[in-house]
Design goal:
- This protein has 312 residues and is mainly α.
- The protein has two domains: 88 residues, DNA polymerase, domain 1 (Orthogonal Bundle); 193 residues, Intergrase catalytic core (hpI Integrase, Chain A).
- The protein contains 14 helices and three strands.
- It has a three-stranded antiparallel sheet with strand order 1-2-3.
- The chain is elongated, with a radius of gyration of 21 Å.
């Protein structure tokens, strides 16, 4: 394998484990699917991974069928190849996805794991606020779930992009595209509480506008968020294999189950290319706020708590 391909493969493995939250065994299975394609390229094709086209991939798919591989296994391999090319797009190795039109055998799809509302409550409520990082972790997990952020979007969140009074955040998503996302009153409260602790941290140069900081005053990494969530899930007694992406799936699922408009959910997740200028010309911000405030369980429960306690 050429050194360039090895470097890409190493980065892909890290992406599968940290960004997608896959176990080591599952990540290895994805890499095995990629190696099947690499083996085909080495023997049958003159192309390489970065120059493959849809037409180049067709003989590879035909070879899977001719070899008598089951429909389920074919679908898994194709899914693995598609995952790899999505990674190449995200990391700006490619501008176009040659697997976009590839079709898999129809065998049904397994939906990603999500946490129940009770599990979300247990996860966040189990955080020990007496620890120095307790309020920070609570604010981070509340923001992840309440806004449906990717972990990369969470660690890149700027203090200056949190509009407390308007209850919106500006998120820098994939491809450096920005979108406006409503943030719940509950998450706003947790961030405000965290800012008290943050004010006592000596912030490193270059991290002044980074919202969530480690104890040394620098920004957090994906690995740190992954481990924080894993440890907290264990403390909360959650046995599911979860990752930061699980909270994003839970966000979308709970909104959908609560009756939110699918179009609004897609926009809040950043599944479309919405630039800063398009935010103000094509999105009804009050519509988005109404959808998330009315249908997200954290907002419904927070409203009930305020009514019971008499807080405004």
């Amino acid at each position: 394998m050429a050194q360039k391909e090895k470097n890409i493969n190493d980065k892909y493995m890290s992406w599968l484990r940290l960004e997608k939250g896959l176990s080591d065994n599952t990540a290895e299975a994805y890499l095995d699917d990629l190696n099947k394609l690499l083996g085909f390229i080495g023997k049958e094709s003159g192309a390489d991974l970065l120059s493959m086209t849809y037409q180049d991939l067709q003989p590879f798919i035909a070879q899977l069928k001719d070899a008598g591989i089951s429909a389920r296994s074919q679908a898994r391999i194709i899914s693995g190849i598609k995952s790899f090319y999505r990674f190449l797009l995200v990391e700006d190795y490619l501008e176009n996805d040659p697997t976009e039109l590839l079709e898999s055998p129809k065998i049904g799809m397994k939906l990603p794991d999500v946490l129940t509302e009770n599990e979300i409550n247990n996860l966040i409520n189990s955080i020990d606020l007496s620890k120095p990082e307790g309020q920070r972790n609570r604010a981070m997990l509340e923001t992840l779930y309440s806004c449906g952020l990717r972990v990369s979007e969470l660690i890149g969140l700027r203090y200056s992009n949190v509009y407390f009074d308007e209850q919106f955040i500006v998120v820098n998503g994939k491809g450096n595209k920005q979108r406006l996302v409503p943030i719940s009153p509950k998450a706003i409260t947790e961030i405000r509480n965290y800012l008290i602790d943050r004010s006592h941290i000596e912030v490193k140069k270059g991290s002044e506008d980074t919202l969530f900081l480690n104890r040394r005053g620098a920004g957090l990494t994906r690995v740190m968020i992954f481990h924080i969530l894993k440890e907290q899930a264990a403390i909360a007694g959650i046995r599911k294999n979860i990752s930061p992406h699980t909270l994003r799936h839970s966000f979308a699922t709970h909104l959908l189950e609560g009756g939110a408009n699918l179009r609004a959910i897609q926009m809040m997740l950043g599944h479309e290319s919405i630039t800063t200028t398009e935010i103000y010309t094509h999105i009804d911000r009050e519509f988005l706020r109404r959808e998330i405030i009315e249908h997200h369980p954290r907002n419904r429960n927070f409203g009930k708590e305020n009514r019971y306690t008499g807080n405004g």
